Amino acid sequence: QVQLVESGGGLAQTGGSLTLSCAVSGIAFRLYSMGWYRQAPGKQRELVASINTSGTDTDYADPVKGRFTISRDNDKNFVYLQKNSLKSEDTGAHYCKTRIIGHEYWGQGTQVTVSS
């Protein structure tokens, strides 16, 4: 059974930092690319960052480039999102996701709220 469990969300101040974690089980984690998504209140879920299987190739949405870093630990089956220089628009539920043979698997999400 594939499971993705996010953690690390919470309340942060503008300009602060948070690190989100996603624990993955039930799959050969090192074989699959991973992504982090954010869903702001009243808006669609959108891709924030993605990482390939080995961690050597990453991609970021323009608003977070230079502020966020996605990484993974293929020995521990974790993917991380380091969020620095937080802005109010970084607020939202954050989800990790993978795709296996065309089927998407999502975690339950972790809420990040950024306030001044």
Task: Describe the 3D structure.
The structure is a single chain. This protein is an all-beta fold and 116 residues long. Helix content is 0%, strand content 54%. It has no helices and eleven strands. The protein has strands spanning 3-7, 10-13, 18-25, 34-39, 46-51, 58-60, 68-73, 78-83, 92-100, 103-106, 110-115. Strand 5 and strand 6 (58-60) form a beta hairpin. The model has no long low-confidence stretch (mean pLDDT 97).
Question: Characteristics of this structure?
Answer:
116 residues, mainly beta, 7-stranded mixed sheet, 4-stranded antiparallel sheet, 0% helix, globular
N-to-C span: 40 Å
Beta-strand proportion: over 45%
Q: Helices and strands, in N-to-C order?
A: EEEEEEEEEEE
Give me the secondary-structure category: mainly beta
Mean pLDDT: 97
Name the poorly predicted regions: none
Give the overall shape: globular
Give helix % range: under 10%
Which radius of gyration do the C-alpha atoms yield? Answer: 13 Å
Contiguous helical run count: 0
Biggest sheet character = 7 strands, mixed
Total E-strand runs = 11
Outline the fold blueprint:
Elements: E1 3-7, E2 10-13, E3 18-25, E4 34-39, E5 46-51, E6 58-60, E7 68-73, E8 78-83, E9 92-100, E10 103-106, E11 110-115
Parallel strand pairs: 2-11
Antiparallel strand pairs: 1-3, 3-8, 4-5, 4-9, 5-6, 7-8, 9-10, 9-11
Task: Describe the structure concisely.
With 116 residues, the protein is an all-beta fold. It has strands at 3-7, 10-13, 18-25, 34-39, 46-51, 58-60, 68-73, 78-83, 92-100, 103-106, 110-115. The chain has no helices and 11 strands.
